Amino acid sequence: MRAQFDLPAGMTYLNTCSHAPMLRCALAAGQAVLARSGTPWSGPDAEWTAGVERVRMLAAQWFGGDVDGLAFVPSAAYGIATAARNLPLARGDAVLVLDGQFPSNLLAWQQRCEETGARIVVARREPGQDWTGAVLATLERNADIRIAALPQAHWHDGAMLDMDRSAPHVRARGAALVLDLSQSLGVIAANPVGWQPDFIVSVGYKWMLGVTGMSLLWAAPHWRNHGTPIEHHWSARDARTVWQFDPQTPPEYQAGARRFDAGGVIELQRLKMFEAALLQLQEWGTSMVLDHLQATTDALDAALDDVGLSSWNTAQHAPHFTGLRPPPDRFASVAVALRDANIICTARHGVLRIAPHLHVGPADMQRLAEVLVRAVS
Description:
single chain; alpha/beta; seven-stranded mixed beta sheet; 12 helices
């Protein structure tokens, strides 16, 4: 499958958590649009509209097929800001986040707390505790939590939060649930029916294999019927009424979460590239992608064990990526050794983030372990 990605020979690319390697089919789709971009008269509006809904339907497969629940937004941060605008929050309330949570699912809540007099509550792991246990314990200690803003896999090292266990506890306390699945969607499907979140966001350019500037926002039925978008533009409105220009009566929104579609995001090049990526994921199949990546990280776990470096690995990490923690005094030299071996990964805050995709297999993981052990020998 490596040949389906636009990668140079000899490179072991393990940085999907930052940006997925480009699929050749997506690259070709984008180049085709660019080649005819000078002829805007050649693409009728009806073709563009049909393409938008076709891509929405493909993306909805990762949300239990809920097409009406999906909107296209430029970033996960935009989706979180939409959630923060709509969910009620008042003085004395609290918003739950994980320790070290990615800024896209933190900054908007900090702003809302500053505006309302609410506060941020941080779930921190005790020694030997996983994120699920930390979240449940924090919920138990803080009855004022009104919003839980959480990821499924921690961006820093792949440590997992069990949504099947956590979501019911959030709901039992009457709190809203907002999920950032940017580090899991595309490998692990969302379960909006089981989790009952208010909003879900995900970028499209990591595990979804799409492009920057095209992200997904899922909204629960209440919000897709009563929510207020951040911006107001014609393409999120009902085409039958939007051009009537009645200064007293605004036009109706499009059906479902389409009211949250961001202006200018759904342009043809992004749309075609994202469609190509989603079609490729569909062809591979969800279970195949998950199984392959699980086998790859299992191979890494075994290889680290063989060379005596299993203590570096993140416990209970995601099936598709993990984080390795070399001794602090060797971190810089290990990172240099990987770069010299043309092994590309994120090295940040003492963690080497190992995030393969289908272009990587068990043999690459064995080579990675060998480079690591040589670097500290």
